[in-house]
Amino acid sequence: MATRNRTPLYRKYRDALRNVRVPSHSSSGGGGGAGPVIELVSTSLLHSNRSYAPLSTDDPGSSSNGAHTMGLSPAWVDISEEISANMQRVRTKMSELAKAHGKALMPSFGDGKEDQHLIEALTHEITDLLKRSEKKLQRLAASGPSEDSNVRKNVQRSLATDLQNLSMELRKKQSAYLKRLRQQKEGQDGVDLEMNLNGSRSDVEDDEFSDLSFNEHQMSKLKKSEAFTREREREIQQVVESVNELAQIMKDLSILVIDQGTIVDRIDYNIQNVTASVEEGFKQLQKLFILPAGRENTEERGDGEVCYDPHHHVFYHAGSSYSEGDILVIKSDGNSVYYGLDASSVTAIPIQS
Amino acid sequence: MVLISSARDYVGRMLQDISGMKVLVVDSQTVSIVSVVYSQSELLQKEVFLVELVDSMSKESMAHLKAVYFLRPTSENIQHLRRHLASPRFGEYHLFFSNILKTTQIQVLADSDEQEVVKQVQEFYADFVAIDPCHFTLNMPLNHIYMLPAVVDPPSSQNFCDRAVDGIAAVFLALKRRPVIRYQRTSDIAKRIAQEASKLMYEQESGLFDFRRTEISPLLLIIDRRDDPVTPLLNQWTYQAMVHELLGIEDNKVNLRSIGKISEDHQEVVLSSEQDAFFKANMYENFGDLGMNIKQMVDEFQQIAKSNQNIQTIEDMAKFVDNYPEYRRMQGNVSKHVTMVTEMSKIVEERKLMLVSQTEQELACNGGQVAAFEAVINLLNNESISDVDRLRLVMLYALRYEKESSVQLMQLFNKLSSLSAKYKPGLVQFLLKQAGVDKRTGDLFGNRDLLNIARNMARGLKGVENVYTQHQPLLFQTMESITKGRLRDLDYPFVGNHFQQGRPQEVVIFIIGGTTYEEARVVTLQNATNSGTRFILGGSVVLNSKRFLKDLEEAQRIARASSAV
């Protein structure tokens, strides 16, 4: 993998030519200013963003508009930076959440509530950040076939990919947590057994003194365990809800994210098609938000159409020739999660096991 | 192996040290070079948010972007760059060229860079389209030029040679090697390209090519397509070769728009051994085995699809949603391969290719002139055989029995011209003139010396596994000779006084006029035997029969026109 750097030679020629060029410039009416300006440029190579802004005075012919905006990033760059910043915060919060999950799963009775509140708050915050980022992402969309809008669309795609990965990661964490929680719940009899064993052993040691308190102790344990179960159920419910919300975000993003290994992921294809394909994606995304809430799910739908209402979340409804089994309807109330591959065959899964 | 990974590394290194938002500017050639080794999502990861062709007329100023140019050092590109540098649209300019720059070109660029926006000028030698790990092409647009004598069109001929030398030089610069060079004696253009490559590597840029010496120098062998005109004329039955023959592959993409009713996702599909595990596993399989493997893949997919419908618990559901992108990807891949194989089966049926191919293989591999003549006549009379298949059969017969049976040959020519007015039999004669036995170096039909005849007979006695894939391209023998150190100096002379000592460990074989996927397959299989010699195959284009015949016709047209003058 040989390479050859021709920059030194290039610089040598350029420097040599600069000396020739300066007088020709001053004679063309640019004034003595041209020389110093170029000097200034060559010394500020590091701050290249602004390096040639002053030069614009050199040729007022090339649209003074451009001269003012040159070197300054367009406004949408701020949005993309905000999203990146948001995602950075999500990453930090996510590691906090992982810690909180771990702690909550440890067998402790006293302040389990605190952990749960923390988890709730964190989950909420993360989901919220993701949601907001996703909303912001839409603002990046531009219309018109300009090159700038191509850039924006690509920035958007790139951010959408990151965002999707983050959402995926969060969902994996939550799924794992949910699973562990449910395992704990199922294994509770076992835990109780062990507690009883412990308790009875201590009884033997403590003798008959604490006959009454023993019962009270048991009672309070029982109560606590009931409360514990209720609490866990609530948690599970919460996680399920959040999973749903995330699924929604991911579905929205999946329109933007590039499927790897497909023609869409080819560079040559994108040179020709970047405008067309992303605009199509956007139309779909907009359709999604324009659709009136509460529209019934039983209606016939075409490929790629997405329905959304407060009770039903359609996870994926990708347009393709093999669309059987492509649609997943999710609804959850307090007791059950309903799912179905289309609206007519919804099955309920009770949350309690 | 080396080719794809070095091209990828070149692209990666261009982008990695330039922070912030970038635009990649390519030309019509480098876009292929980059596209076959790098993906759009990988570009996005490197913060390249716009890819633009160097000749695009856009005037939009985007000073917040840094421009990374990756261009071939052609004079047109230098002119484009002059224009771009005179009124810069981007914040910074990083110029990467895929080959050696002339000093004058650097001067021109420096002269146009009045505002000093260029930050670096580099030569990154990714000047070849690395379609497979051991197979590259140069995608040369005027490929037919190689068949014409240099005097017919000297500038085009020079351009052709220059591009070939550039591509070959770049491969060796990417490998960091300087080879000894051999060429096929009977080909003028092979000799010319070999000599120009040698001049570049040992004289003009000897410093650049002065790498740490390996004990045994690698070998560059330059041969002419016309030494084996049979391989590009045959119907193919292994997956990759067959797709190229029947549907056409271009830069690892297949255009399926002609098929008719087809879902939007599959109008154009990617066929890359790097990104598609199923394709990688089956690209060299024959059509029969491929069908079984596709069926197995469909079954597996249906299993997964079924288990996805059988969602019992929240975990199942969560798992389904998590795995959905993977599921969808798999679905896309399954339907891609099914679509292509279905379409190819249809063509095979329509054109009766099984029948045609059997005779083709007989002509290419076995003796038996009388039987062969009868078979060809029968097929010419068969209504369902397409014109192009008839032409190819006559060509194969003519190449095989050029000297033995001029009477029968005339009969076939007459038959052919009576059947289709479109195909002038003159094309077969032109082929013989181009690639007849007097022009060839290698023993194409294995009937020249006693050893080859004996070997052929032994193979005949052993019997063949599959009549449709019994043909071995001449390249196979050539590689065998190289690994055994038996490639004759007389037939494949060395350039200059750089000779080979011992068996080479690395060999680049460049076929002027184009490679075929059948040959690429043989090279890959040869490399898999770990004989101690690794081969890389490259050519001016990747041929299928359609392209080979088109080049032949084009050359014939020009040859006629120039002789008429």
Automatic annotation (TrEMBL), chain A:
InterPro entries named in the record: SNARE (IPR010989), Syntaxin (IPR045242), Syntaxin/epimorphin_CS (IPR006012), Syntaxin_N (IPR006011), T_SNARE_dom (IPR000727)
Species classification: Eukaryota, Viridiplantae, Streptophyta, Embryophyta, Tracheophyta
Family named by the database record: Belongs to the syntaxin family.
Name of the protein in its database record: Syntaxin-43
Gene: SYP43
Species this chain originates from: Acorus calamus
GO MF: SNAP receptor activity; SNARE binding
Database matches in PANTHER family: SYNTAXIN, SYNTAXIN-16
Subcellular location: Golgi apparatus, trans-Golgi network membrane
Every T-SNARE coiled-coil homology domain range: 226-288
UniProtKB/TrEMBL annotation, chain B:
Transmembrane segments: none
Pfam family, one: Sec1
GO annotation terms (biological process): intracellular protein transport; regulation of vesicle fusion; vesicle-mediated transport
Gene3D superfamilies: 1.25.40.60, 3.40.50.1910, 3.40.50.2060, Syntaxin Binding Protein 1, Chain A, domain 2 (3.90.830.10)
Main localization of the protein described in the UniProt heading: membrane
Top-level taxon of the source organism: Eukaryota
Key words, A-Z: Membrane, Protein transport, Transport
Locations listed in the record: Endomembrane system
Keyword Transport in record: yes
Membrane disposition: Peripheral membrane protein
GO CC, one annotated term: SNARE complex
Record-stated family: Belongs to the STXBP/unc-18/SEC1 family.
Name under which the protein is recorded: Vacuolar protein sorting-associated protein 45 homolog
